[in-house]
Design goal:
CATH architecture of the largest domain: 3-Layer(aba) Sandwich
Order of helices and strands: EEHEEEEHEEEHEEEEHEHEEHHEH
Oligomer: single chain
Distance between the termini: 41 Å
Strand order of the largest sheet: 3-1-2-4-5-6
Shape: globular
Length: 277
């Protein structure tokens, strides 16, 4: 295995020089759907510097500066898993990046916007098992040039309390550097599939799970969808207006719905009622 990993997202590339084989293996597994083999000029270069006689700490060098220092190797993975993606996202002027799940059916994609801890990952897992193609359960990037949707295809993050719901579909595959009470699952372990590089989004969904009410769908106006979508933009500092114009454009182009559901099968049936693009 090469000690240089090349990670691509939003058409930007980061190089990670990692001499530690265990850490390199974990990063390779985590980012495997975004690794490329060549890059003429990476946007950013990270170097992992092991402890030495001069320093007892592990260090991460980004460019010419030390960006992270730790005495425990296990913290390197969590730092790099977040930092590398965040750097690429915040230096991608041609994309609006949303904290959202992205799934596809035929040639069309659906964007699911919901806060962390609301069951978005459980919903993603269910839909992948039901035949939808996985783009991301965490982050989608919409091109400002052609409107195509790309997903950050890293493992699905499930809280341990939600694992029991997924047991009928797959055997959980844990990564070496997991967090407490969280399981990371490769979407390929749910259902072998070809992950789409990009799709045209055709539905914008704001799901909300509750066991206390009946299934309900509310079509949203462009203004209401913009109001809900704008706070989900991750790289808002990239845009002069914090991404408001792009959020408004998406809300005007893509039909949006707020969906309250007590049962995943009801939501799946409703989604499948839409004709695919």
């Amino acid at each position: 295995m090469s000690d240089i990993l090349l990670l691509q997202f939003c058409h930007q590339i980061a190089a990670i020089h990692c001499p530690d084989s265990e850490l390199a293996e974990a990063l390779t597994g985590y980012f495997r759907h975004h690794l490329v083999t060549t890059a003429s000029s990476p946007l950013v270069v990270y170097k992992i510097i092991p402890p030495s006689a001069a320093s007892a700490s592990w260090r991460v060098q980004r460019g010419e500066q030390i960006s992270f220092t730790t005495s425990e190797r296990r913290y390197l993975f969590a730092y790099l898993a977040y930092e590398v993606v965040a750097y690429l996202v915040n230096h991608s002027p041609d994309y609006v990046v949303l904290h959202a799940a992205g799934l596809a059916r035929a040639e069309g994609g659906a964007i699911f916007c919901a806060p962390s801890g609301s069951g978005k990952s459980t919903l993603t897992t269910w839909l992948v098992a039901a035949g939808w193609a996985f783009l991301s359960d965490e982050m989608v990037a919409i091109s400002a040039l052609d409107g195509q949707m790309h997903g950050l295809a890293i493992p699905i993050v499930l809280q341990e309390t939600a694992i029991f719901q997924a047991q009928p579909w797959f055997s959980p595959q844990s990564w070496p550097y997991k967090l407490p009470d969280v399981t990371w699952l490769d979407p390929m372990s749910i259902r072998p599939q070809v992950l789409p590089a990009s799709v045209q989004p055709y539905r914008l969904i704001f799901p909300h799970y509750t066991s206390q009410t009946a299934f309900r769908v509310q079509p949203l106006s462009a203004a209401a969808a913009t109001f809900r979508l704008w706070p989900r933009i991750i790289n808002y500092n990239t845009w002069p207006d914090k991404g408001l114009a792009l959020a408004k454009k998406l809300a005007q182009q893509i039909p949006a719905y707020q969906v309250i559901y007590p049962d995943l099968s009801q939501l799946t049936e409703w989604l499948d009622s839409f004709p695919a693009l």
